[in-house]
Every structure is written in C-alpha cells, then in structure tokens.
C-alpha cells in the first residue's frame, strides 16, 4: 500500500469520519490506521474479503467526494502553511504568535 495514499486516507478520515457509517468507519480505521489486512477485517466481522474490499473502495471514493465538495483537508493544509510562514517571518511578534497559536488550536 502506498504511504501517500495511506496518509491521505488517514487525514481525510480525521476530517470526515463523522459523516461515515459505523461499518465504513471501522473498516477504514482498521485498514489504514491499524494496518489490518482484508482477511483480518473479514474474519473480525464475519464477512468475505471481497465485501471488505468493496466497502473500503466505496468509502475511499466517498471520502474523496467529501473533500472535493467541502475542501476541509486542503484548506487546513493551506492555513497550516500560512501559519508556519508567518511564524517564521515574525518570530519576535508575541501578539501575532499568540493569535496564530489560537487559530491553529481551533483546527486541531
């Protein structure tokens, strides 16, 4: 499994997990976050590997669709880059640093 895809799916899951069904959340979390194999997930839920595979593929598409419509993850990345740039450019401005820290904590 590609590390970039795993990282992206984990990030999208963090933003959109509440919009998924319990089954979708369980399968995606076990597969991407906990590194379970399809067979291990299938055994745990007493379903076929194909059922797990199909559910994961559908859920990946759902997560990507949410991101295309809502842009929560991509907006977060842009904000984080801007915050980092400002903090590096104005390291001695305590007021600005404090405000950036507050804004950053809202995202997390």
How would you sum up this structure, described in words?
- By secondary structure, the chain is mostly helical.
- It folds into two domains: 68 residues, Arc Repressor Mutant, subunit A; 34 residues.
- The protein is 81% helix and 0% strand.
- The protein has six helices and no strands.
- Helix 1 packs across helix 4 and helix 3 crosses helix 4.
- The radius of gyration is 18 Å and the shape is elongated.
- The two termini are 27 Å apart.
- The mean pLDDT is 95.
Question: What are its keywords?
Answer:
108 residues, mainly alpha, Arc Repressor Mutant, subunit A, 2 domains, 6 helices, 81% helix, 0% strand, UPF0122_fam_protein, WH-like_DNA-bd_sf
Quick recap of the structure?
The protein is an all-alpha fold. Helices cover 81% and strands 0% of the residues.
CATH topology of the largest domain: Arc Repressor Mutant, subunit A
Which whole number gives the mean pLDDT?
A: 95
Number of helices: 6
Taken in chain order, the helices and strands follow as HHHHHH
User: What name goes with the CATH superfamily of the largest domain?
Assistant: Winged helix-like DNA-binding domain superfamily/Winged helix DNA-binding domain
Overall 3D shape? elongated
Rg (CA only): 18 Å
What's the total count of β strands?
0
C-alpha end-to-end distance: 27 Å
Largest sheet: none
CATH C-level class of the largest domain? Mainly Alpha
Assembly status: single chain
Low-confidence stretches: none
CATH architectural arrangement of the largest domain: Orthogonal Bundle
Whole-number count of domains: 2
GO molecular function: DNA binding
Family: Belongs to the UPF0122 family.
Protein name: UPF0122 protein DDV21_006230
Function: Might take part in the signal recognition particle (SRP) pathway. This is inferred from the conservation of its genetic proximity to ftsY/ffh. May be a regulatory protein.
